[in-house]
Amino acid sequence: MSLEPFNRLVKLAARAFYDDITTKGDNQPKTGRSDNRGISVVVLDALTRRQWVREEDLAKDLKLHNKQLRRMLRFFEEEKLITRDHRKETAKGAKIFSAAVAATNDFHHTGKEGEEKVKLHTHSYCCLDYAQIYDVVRYRLHRMRKKLKDELENKNTIQEYICPNCSRRYTALDAIRLVTPDDDYFHCENCNGELVAESDKLAAQEAGDGDDNARRRRREKLKSMLQKMEEQLKPLADQLTRVKDLPVPEFGNLQAWEARAHAHARGGLGDGSSNDPSKSSQGYGGTPMPFLGDTKVEVAFGKEEDLKSETASTSLKVLPPWMIKQGMNLSKEQRGEVKEEVKMDGTSTSSTVSDDKKSSVNTDDKRSIQDEYVKAYYAALLKKQQELEEASKKQQELLISNTSNMDSGTSSARQVGMKFKREEDEGDEDVEWEESNVTSNTNENYKVNDLNVQAEPSGGDEDEDDIDWEEG
Amino acid sequence: MFFHITLERNMQLHPRHFGRNLRENLIAKLMKDVEGTCSGRHGFVVAITGIENVGKGLIRDGTGFVTFPVKYRCVVFRPFKGQILEAVVTMVNKMGFFAEAGPVQIFVSNHLIPDDMEFQSGDMPNYTTSDGSVKIQKDSEVRLKLIGTRVDATEIFCIGTIKDDFLGVINDPTTA
């Protein structure tokens, strides 16, 4: 069974329906800082890369507050996107889960052993419920379509009747009082004239032309809305049809999953390498992996882009803004926007993605990257200082030699001086180069883990974004 | 939808009923007064299932009538928008048809009848499909969906639709 199409489904659905969900109540003012819209997308994306996960771990990985994440997850549970499991655990119980995780994924949670020494606590776990998600999304689309179509066809609207004589209006709810035993028609209570249904335009004309126009406008609006909906949700609908015949990935409940993970670990102890998620990025071959490699992300986004270009090639559509947010390389026409905006979008996306990435990378890894960066930075600084010192020394020497050569006045010394000066310049340049190299190196380091980032995030941006996410 | 609820009512009882059958008289009068009535809030009172308690009577000045606060349990029927009902057609005309589901009157206007059904006037007005396989006339049983309710203080009137999946004639009197 393959997870990839289902993960894509989840991602598309998240962007389509849960993009502007905030966990805050409506009464609180939404300031720029505390606006956490889009967080649901991040959470869902993160969940596509996991199976059962302890909520605290997820919160830690996403750099979210526990409470905030839990509120989000509760919302998703109500939306029937995820299943959750709560249980009271001793340190031992918690270990079962950690062991299950560690068994299939050796390097990932190794640093956690010490933390599992918690007393009796209720731990919550959550997991995407793919089968249900598939149904929920289908149902949601069906409801949306049906609602619009019903409106369009006047299906569930209450018929109105007009008396052509006195232009008094009645609704179908008055029908019982309007009916007379002697003929088939409704009669006006005032003048006993025959009523006509309001949709009969010819008869209704004298009663209200403006109303008619309003109705037509409404119809137009509904029609365009329906059309827009079909257009914008096409990727999602396509994905639904693609997923239709695939077997749904099923993790079972928490206990079953843990048991399976254990069994697998025991069976596959010989080939520990196969448990490495980085190597088994493609193969979710029936063996439960609690942590699926980050590489997956790239595949998903890449495909999305492919699909985009497919659809774009057939007809260059203006993409809906919620699709563009994913930071894809699209032509301007496809975006149908001003470039500046696009840029902004790009940064926000990269931050999202990088955040995702970060969450997935082990904290140890992160630390090491940061350490490396710091080390490299200090090394560069040191080097620069040394070279500056050297240069100044040389300059002093030069001065001395110049003064000593002053008497003789030979041009050779000056030439040497010139050379020295040049060297000094070069030295400076060197230092600068070194620095930029360092940063680019770290960027590259970073990219190895984060195959997915298309717009290269600069280090500074990153930090800022991190802070944003933490507070958001 | 049906509900089993507890209601309260102040019953006025004439002094001639006072005696050892006072309670029976009170309950008989309650049933006569309440069953079959309609309140906008609770819907139609279908049946009284039991008396919870009868409070202390209060003699009214001047008349001699006594007021008893009576608490009783009863089954009520309250139609809701979106509810699916089965109803018997009572009248068919050009504007649509009327149907009854117990005490509730429902009107289905002709634009909420599927487009392939056409009105046939005559001795027995009816709505028929072009191939004549489905016919709605007086006494047909139809399943319909309520799309609007008009709730007054003492009456409830509904409008319904049969223009949806699984709605329409469920039992034709002519074929039965």
UniProtKB/TrEMBL annotation, chain A:
Entry's Gene Ontology BP terms = transcription initiation at RNA polymerase II promoter
Q: Where is the HTH TFE/IIEalpha-type domain?
A: 6-138
Q: Composition bias, kind Basic and acidic residues: at what positions?
A: 332-344, 354-369
Which residue ranges does the record annotate as region Disordered? 265-291, 328-369, 388-472
Biased-composition ranges, Acidic residues, are 425-435, 459-472
Q: From start to end residue, where is composition biased (Polar residues)?
A: 272-282, 398-414
> Which residues lie in Low complexity bias regions?
436-445
Taxonomically, which superkingdom? Eukaryota
Q: Could you name the Gene Ontology cellular component terms for this entry?
A: transcription factor TFIIE complex
Instruction: Kindly state which keywords UniProt assigns to this record, in alphabetical order.
Output: Transcription, Transcription regulation
Pfam families assigned to the protein according to its UniProt record, in alphabetical order: TFIIE_alpha (PF02002)
Which PANTHER family has this protein been placed in?
Answer: GENERAL TRANSCRIPTION FACTOR IIE SUBUNIT 1 (PTHR13097:SF7), TRANSCRIPTION INITIATION FACTOR IIE, ALPHA SUBUNIT (PTHR13097)
Q: Which family does it belong to?
A: Belongs to the TFIIE alpha subunit family.
Q: What is this protein called?
A: HTH TFE/IIEalpha-type domain-containing protein
UniProtKB/TrEMBL annotation, chain B:
| Top-level taxon in the UniProt lineage | Eukaryota
Quick check: keyword Magnesium in the entry?
A: no
The chain positions of domain S1 motif read 79-156
Tell me a GO biological process for this protein.
positive regulation of translational initiation
Q: Which UniProt keywords apply?
A: DNA-directed RNA polymerase, Nucleus, Transcription
Task of the protein: DNA-dependent RNA polymerase which catalyzes the transcription of DNA into RNA using the four ribonucleoside triphosphates as substrates.
Cite a single GO MF annotation.
single-stranded DNA binding
- Note whether Nucleus occurs among the keywords: yes
Concerning InterPro entries, the annotation shows: NA-bd_OB-fold, RNA_pol_Rpb7-like_N_sf, Rpb7-like, Rpb7-like_N, S1_domain
Domain RNA polymerase Rpb7-like N-terminal, chain residue ranges per copy: 8-64
What protein does this entry describe? DNA-directed RNA polymerase subunit
Pfam name, any one? S1
- Can you cite an annotated GO cellular component? P-body
Q: Where in the cell is it found?
A: Nucleus
Protein family per UniProt: Belongs to the eukaryotic RPB7/RPC8 RNA polymerase subunit family.
